[in-house]
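In the laboratory, one determines a bound structure by crystallizing the protein with its ligand and collecting diffraction data. In a computational setting the workflow is compressed into a single prediction: the sequence and the ligand go in, and a structural description comes out. We illustrate the idea with flavin mononucleotide.
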Amino acid sequence: MPPMTRSRAGDGEIATDLMAEYYGQRASAGLIISEGTQISRQGQGYAWTPGIYTQDQIAGWKKVTHAVHAKGGLIFAQLWHVGRVSHVSLQEDNQAPVAPSAILAEGVKVFLDLKGKGPKDGAGEMVQHSMPRELTVPEIRQIIQDFAQAAKNAIEAGFDGIELHGANGYLIEQFIDSQTNHRTDEYGGSVENRLRFLKEVVTAVADAIGKDKVGVRQAPLTTLMGAQDDTPEITYIEAAKILNEIGIAYIHIAEADWDNAPVMPIAFKEAYRKAFKGTLIYTGKYSKERAEEAISRGWADLISFGRPFIANPDLPYRLQNNLSLNEPDRTYFFGGGTKGYTDYQTHEQFIEN
Ligand SMILES: Cc1cc2nc3c(=O)[nH]c(=O)nc-3n(C[C@H](O)[C@H](O)[C@H](O)COP(=O)(O)O)c2cc1C
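The predicted complex, in structure-token form:
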């Protein structure tokens, strides 16, 4: 199950009992990757997303990891800093969000709860994110430390490992992609420089918790949040080589998403395989048939299923037995309570009712 933001954390951005129930219901996934979880207040981009930088947040996550482990599942925490995809209302003292460069992605919206009505009513709205300001080098070093500390916190909270969100237009991808990074110092310009932030974050996190507990998500071709690279086949394969050298557990490729990302050519997938010796996970509009084909053709080790898992807590059982799938209701994707979250039935419950 890939990371999916559901915006249902409680006050203080703390994971709740309801979230523990939701993740526990989906433990048969084998491996769950949590929703994007901010490493600091500055790293938050949406209403009601959970954090992992306070003791109370660590305590909240313990309930989630226990619920998943009790049912024999594994769970990694997806750690994110959203960079420019944020809004002043989420930042301390209404400050501007931060980014590699002060570039606004026009038309990119974030889910907010400006009326402050609370997570239970799902009263969020989509708002244009705020103009970011460029990070200084000392600030970049601080964020790298924040990632390392958040990784340690995740292990303390009982997670089996962490996935760095290096995809979908958030901070790490903003550094990688040529269109969001116009810096002229050692963090911008050449491919090597644009990959420096990724390399330093991964190294710090691997030193903090062990490289075997670290995965990285990448989205070489998606255009989410206005982030795009001019030469993704070069940039992302170079990144894969760096990740291979560090020796992390996996790369998780978001191949397609909400957008109409171009189909990833087989040659690109084969290049990933050649560059990276660890586990390769792919996600993006997969059916059971396409997943089986991807595994049998050898360029994927694991496939994760996103939206189908929202609506089918027993998805593996349904796929194994060729049962029909519930359709997810996107009205309840972000924010709200149990509806459209923990109330989807398993096949067994459906039969009993
Ligand atoms: C409601 C929702 C929230 C998502 N939140 C995240 C997120 O926090 N982090 C992330 O890397 N991807 C996120 N994604 C993308 C999914 O991980 C996945 O890549 C995407 O849904 C495509 O897979 P699918 O076609 O199987 O759903 C989200 C997707 C959905 C539907």
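Residues 2-5, 35-36, 78, 165, 167-168, 217, 254, 257, 283-286, 305-307, 333 surround flavin mononucleotide (CB under 6 Å). Keep in mind that any predicted model is a hypothesis to be tested, not a measurement.
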